């Protein structure tokens, strides 16, 4: 599988079926805060609401959505206007092939050069070494551990809080 022809664009409500399909894979939802058995309507709503402060991008190869990344901003909160919170996922068939890096490149460019954000934050499961390594490549640092932060696959697991600062 090649990344040749990879396109990244803003997600649209009509992408809900493809995103729902992506989240049907345990390889995908187990790495996120999502639960199994997503509905198209849930994703349609998520992609349609809060478009002034949530920017969601999708990566497409051969007309197929193979990943998505979102950044939530806080324009109505004066003390947090400079912050964006990132969430990312890659289709199970495309993990480890560079899609995540392409999405991270796109979302950090949007944050740095268009949204004027100087702090980016994210949470990642502590045992997701591949994701932690990816985020470190983009300047994120572990800022702390959230113990027993989430319930996943029948047990409580830890998460890492990571942040990236721009000096402006």
Quickly list its features.
168 residues, alpha+beta, Aminopeptidase, seven-stranded mixed β-sheet, 5 helices, 7 strands, 36% strand, globular
Q: How large, in whole angstroms, is the Cα Rg?
A: 15 Å
Largest sheet entry? 7 strands, mixed
**Any idea what the CATH superfamily of the domain at 7-118 is called?**
Gcn5-related N-acetyltransferase (GNAT)
CATH architecture name of the domain at 7-118: 3-Layer(aba) Sandwich
Strand order within the widest sheet? 1-2-3-4-5-7-6
What sort of overall outline do the alpha carbons produce when their principal axes are compared?
Answer: globular
Order of helices and strands: EHHHEEEHEHEE
Strand fraction equals 35-45%
Stretches with pLDDT under 50, minimum 5 residues = none
Average pLDDT over all residues: 92
Kindly name the structural category.
alpha+beta
Number of strands: 7
CATH topology of the domain at 7-118: Aminopeptidase
Distance between the termini: 39 Å
Give a structural overview.
It is a single chain. The chain is α+β, with helices and mostly antiparallel strands. It has a domain at 7-118: Aminopeptidase, CATH 3.40.630. Helices cover 26% and strands 36% of the residues. It is built from five helices and seven strands. β6 and β7 (155-165) form a beta hairpin.
What's the structural blueprint in terms of helices and strands?
Blueprint: E1 7-10, H1 16-22, H2 26-29, H3 40-48, E2 54-61, E3 64-73, E4 83-90, H4 99-113, E5 119-125, H5 129-137, E6 141-152, E7 155-165
Parallel strand pairs: 4-5
Antiparallel strand pairs: 1-2, 2-3, 3-4, 5-7, 6-7
Helix pairs in contact: 1-3
